[in-house]
Every structure is written in structure tokens, then in C-alpha cells.
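Go through the following before class.
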Amino acid sequence: MAKSGLVLYSALALLCSCFVFTQCAPEKAPVTQLPGFNGSFPSKHYSGYVTIGPHHRRHLFYYFVTSERDPSKDPVVLWLNGGPGCSSFDGFVYEHGPFNFEAAKKQKSLPRLHLNPYSWSKVSNIIYLDSPAGVGLSYSKNSSDYQTGDIKTALDSHTFLLKWFKLYPEFLPNPFFIAGESYAGIYVPTLAVEVANGIDAGVKPILNLKGYIVGNGVADEKFDGNALVPFVHGMGLISNDLFEEVNRECKGNYYNSSSSTCDSKLTKVYQVIVGLNIYDILEPCYHGPSTRKVAASNDRLPVSFRQLGETERPLPVRKRMFGRAWPLRAPVRDGPVPTWPQLLNSVSVPCTNDEVATAWLNDKAVRKAIHAEEQSVAGAWELCTDRISYNHDAGSMIKYHRNLTSRGYRALIFSGDHDMCVPYTGSEAWTRSLGYKIVDEWRSWISNEQVAGYIQGYENNLTFLTIKGAGHTVPEYKPREALDFFSRFLRGKRI
């Protein structure tokens, strides 16, 4: 073979190798086994750190699961949990990751892992990113990096993506989506705008962004702040008389009224709903192991109550109020946003139960298997950290959503309809406020031959969707239905 032909052949061989199922991945990135799991992975897994910032001192941790269907063609989805300050392993362990986690039967034993039939990796390649630095397994060599906010987080996450796709160039042609829930209602649109602006500016590598997904996400001070009262009234949690009193005194402004009479009526509302689990009003709120055991063994309780939280997964839905979103009755405003541990001032939290993820991700063997630094370097894994100081500096998300949808990016805004932390009433109202023409009038959508929720479609590829009976973390409560709408949306199919 001529020298020129040999060079061309070698170049083509190198190019082709990158498309044979992530042969271009970093050498130390493959995850080949996980403590607690026996068997073969249904697809390839990779994990590690991407360093960003001055002197490469910020180390952002990712766990990447390739699609079980067709990784070379299926979309790449970046998943972000909220907080701010909460790890995206929340989604990996408890929601839509490749495994279902079963709590250990003995103390100091690791959870057992089973394959998740409703993993989102059934239909997509998915990146779980701990962001910003200081959250989950991500860390910095300089503690000043833990002073952060919306804008800096979006910039850092964009830098992460650019570097990540250079490490995995075979996925650049795939459709790319950004998804998240809760405070990621801020993370997702701010990052999506950064990515879109980078594409327009020709920043390399050019990402194939197609759209974004937000679940039970905060968006706007006014709409989020005014969502609670209509929600609790519609759910039958307050009387019609009290609702009319609040309306009369507050005149539809429930979150920043200067009227003492309005405040007194709102206090009555809060007193009525104080005992509910804000993340799912159908779920009991246990206050400790002893209470949990009493409730489980109390035969006088209705079967429907005792079965609340049961799913098709070995680990029941967590009955807790911790670590998921900006707290009840406190819409996100400009300025410092306390993380959950800071907000609680180290007070014990009722309904807290993150033992499974905490035990697993702080185990030395697990950290070694997923290429995470030891605790002495990256710190202990916590679902939600108080290590960062976070500033909400991006304002309302409505302008971001309008920016993205008007540029042709597809948007799915979904809500578990029994979440009281970020009620669907706020998300429905702000999506309607964009003023887009309705192209798919309010109707039910079907999963497993049952009504799974309701949907309304707008022009400019904006869709609002509810999931019947789901709480704040929809895939945790309704895994089958979540995979259904996720899969259909990614494929551009009618939900």
C-alpha cells in the first residue's frame, strides 16, 4: 500500500473506532462492576471528572450510561437535580437510573442493585452531572469556588459539556437534550441558553441541542409564589370559605402582600396544611423509624393508606421532606438562596431518609469502582450539601423559555400533580402566560392503557404535561409513566 494510502487508511480507522460504541472514551472512564450488583450491565457505563476553570481546579463529576437500545443514534440527555446544592445521584439512585436499589438487610452492608425496567437509559444515553462544584462528588481545590450562583453554574456546566463531548466525540451527532427537576428549573433553561448561544457563535465542538425538559421546576417569583393557594383549594385541602376570604383580602397576590389582614388569612391556610408531606400530599410523613414501624403494622389503617409509597421498585418511595426544592411558600427571589442544610440550621428534619444513597456513595469500594475521589479529597457524599453559598442572579426564567422556544428548541414542562412544593398550578400558569397559541387543547394522555395525566400543547414546540398521582420527583412515583412520556418526547411522538 502506498504511503499516502496508508495514512488515509489509518485516519479512517481511527475515525471509525470512535463510532464503535465509545472506543474514544477516556481510558480510565469505563465502569465494569458495581458493589451490590451481580450480573452484566445492559449497556456501557463511564464515569469520572472533567476539570474546568483557572488552573483546572474545579472538578465536576459525571456518571454516563449509554442507551440500552441504540447508543449511536439515541439522544444524549444531561440530567440535573436541584436544591440548589443537591446531587444528581438523587436521580440515578431513586428515580430513573439503570438500577433499582434495595436497602441492605444488615447494618453496615451495602444496598443490593437490580436492573430497573423503567430506566431512562432504555431509550437514551444519559449523563448524571453533579453541579456546581461542591455538590455531590464534585469538588474544587479552592474553597472560593463554592461561592456561586445561576450564571456561574450555567457557564461552568456549558464548559463541562464542551469538554465532555471532546472526550466522547462519537456522540456529537446525536440529538442532545438538557433535563432536570426542582431547582433545575433554573439550571436547565439558563444552561440551554448558554449552549444555544454557543452554537450560534460557532463555539467548538458544536452541540446538537434539540430541546429541554423541566419537571416540577421553579421558574418565576410571581407565578411560583401565587401557585399554592389555588392548588390547596383545588385539592380540597382548605375550605371554600377560607379560599374566598383569602381571595378577598389578598386580591390574588398571595406571596408578597403588604396587608396584615391578607397575612392573617394566609396563616390560617398554612395552619391547615402544616401536617402534610409537601412533596406528595397523598404520602404519609413519617417522623422517624419508630413511627414508620407503627404505621406499617397498624392493621386498622386503610389498605390504601398502608400501601402509599409502594411502587414496582424494591425501594419504596421515600417519605420525606428534605433536599428536593426551594421550600414551601418561599418562591425563589433574587439574591442568596440558602441550601437546605443552611435553611434548617442543622435541625433534625422530619421525613428524612437518604440512607441508601448515602451508604452506597460513601463506600470506598463504590467510589473506587466509579472513579470518584476519596472522602479526604472530595468530601463525604451528601444528597444536599451546605458546602456552597448560592446566589439566584438569573431572574425570572420566563424570558429564558421564550428565548429558547422562539428559536425552535422543543420544551417539555411536566408536573406531578400532587406536589405541593412546586405546584402544577404555577407551571400551568407561567406556560400559559407566554401567550402562545394552543395547538393541542387540554386532553388526557395514556400510559399502560390508563389515563396517566393531562397535556396541553402550544405553538413553538412548548408542551405542558401533568402526571396523575405523582409527587415532586415524578420518575420516583410513576416510573412507567415517566419513561413513556420521556421516550415519546425524545422521539418527537405525540404523547
